[in-house]
Amino acid sequence: MNKEKVAKIGMSKEEALKLCICEGCPTYVDCSKQGANKEKAFCMVVGKSKCITKEKGCICGACPVKIKMSLKNFYFCTKGSEEQQNK
Questions:
Q1: Taking all residues of the chain, what is their mean pLDDT, rounded to a whole number?
Q2: Residue ranges of the domains in the chain?
C-alpha cells in the first residue's frame, strides 16, 4: 500500500510503524535474521510476510493500529493486509 493510500484512510505509514505491536506476537518472525528486511505493520504497510509461515497465536486484536483504523481481519502477517484480505 503506498503512502498516499495509507494517508487517505487516516494513518501515515510512519504512525502505523510507531504504533505497531507485531514484534510482540507469538507468530512474529524477524525476517532480517533470514537475510530479508525486518517487517512490521502487516495490516497496512507490509501485507503478507515473506518469511512467516506458521500461525502460533495472534495479538492483532490488541493492536492500536487495528483498533484506530477499525480493521476487521486478523493474521495479517500470514493472510495479507486488510486491503488484501478484503478483496
A1: 89
A2: 3-85
Locate 23 and state its grid cell: 514484534
pLDDT at 10 over 80: no
Q: What share of the chain is helix, strand, coil (3-state, %, to 5)?
A: 45, 0, 55
Burial class (CB in 10 A: 0-12, 13-18, 19+), 63: buried
Please tell me the distance from the alpha carbon of residue 86 to that of residue 81, in angstroms, as a whole number. 9
CA atoms within 13 A on the CB side of 37: 5
pLDDT, position 45: 87
Q: What is the grid cell recorded at 64? A: 492500536
Q: What is the DSSP letter of 78?
A: H
Answer yes or no: is pLDDT of 66 > 60. yes
Contact indicator for 27, 78 with CB cutoff of 8 Å? yes
